[in-house]
Specification:
The protein is an alpha/beta fold. 32% of the residues lie in helices and 24% in strands. It contains five helices and nine strands, in the order E-E-H-E-E-E-H-E-H-E-E-H-E-H. The strands form two sheets. The chain has a seven-stranded mixed β-sheet with strand order 1-3-2-6-7-8-9, sandwiched between helices. Strands 4-5 form a two-stranded antiparallel ribbon.
């Protein structure tokens, strides 16, 4: 006899958090999700490029699936593969919920809350924004698709979305971007697009657009 089965268990996830000193009072929060074969530390470096981000808490969440990168031996991470995909999605969403709860409990956080994803991490940002109780006010999506399951659900009170794409990005095509915009707008989501010269990367123009969107959100929340 042979059978396959899954066993739920507990694993420990890794995050990097930085922000204003303790005397700054409650500050807004940006939670970010890195790309394939990256780390929380590398993602945090990218978040620092957003103008005006020094006044925010920045939390870079590392994917739960580490592996060694090539011959360097560097430990990097991936959000999931197609193996047990639905279970991995559920695990990741629960992980993000625990991250948000931990940050809120340990630090003075106020609105707005924003999500940002790069490459493979973009789908995770969309999933976090769609999950009940974790919506936030802004979603910054760079070089990655809207995950397919969002087409099947209502996106009530979904955050404002900024989508970024480099003109020569081989992984996130112009056709995919247009389809993502059409899907989100059909569901009533406010979408802005930032196209920039460059490839699959954090382009300067996208960073500036992200800074402006975050500043607008903070102003709307009464923080600027």
């Amino acid at each position: 006899m042979r059978r396959s089965f899954q066993v739920p268990t507990t694993v420990h996830g890794h995050c990097e958090l930085e922000g204003p000193d303790g005397g700054a009072g409650p500050r807004p929060l940006l939670i970010g999700f890195h790309g394939y074969a990256e780390t929380a530390e590398r993602h945090l470096e990218a978040l620092r490029r957003i103008p005006g981000i020094d006044g925010w808490w920045r939390c870079a969440v590392q994917a739960l699936h580490p592996f060694y990168r090539g011959k360097t031996g560097e430990v990097v991470a991936s959000w999931m593969t197609r193996f047990n995909r639905e279970l991995a999605i559920a695990d990741n969403v629960r992980f993000v919920d625990e991250v948000l709860t931990r940050v809120r409990n340990d630090h003075p956080i106020r609105e707005p809350v924003a999500w940002v994803g790069f490459s493979q991490g973009t789908a995770m940002a969309y999933r976090a924004a769609a999950a009940a109780g974790r919506r936030g006010q802004v979603l910054l999506a760079l070089g990655g698709d809207v995950p397919p399951e969002l087409a099947e659900i209502e996106l009530v009170d979904f955050p404002r979305v900024l989508i970024g794409r480099g003109a020569t990005d081989p992984w996130y095509s112009e056709e995919r971007l247009v389809a993502d915009v059409a899907l989100l707008e059909k569901k009533g989501v406010t979408v802005e697009v930032c196209r920039f010269d460059g490839g699959h990367e954090w382009g300067d123009a996208f960073c500036r657009a992200a800074g402006r969107v975050l500043e607008d959100a903070e102003r709307s929340a009464g923080g600027v």
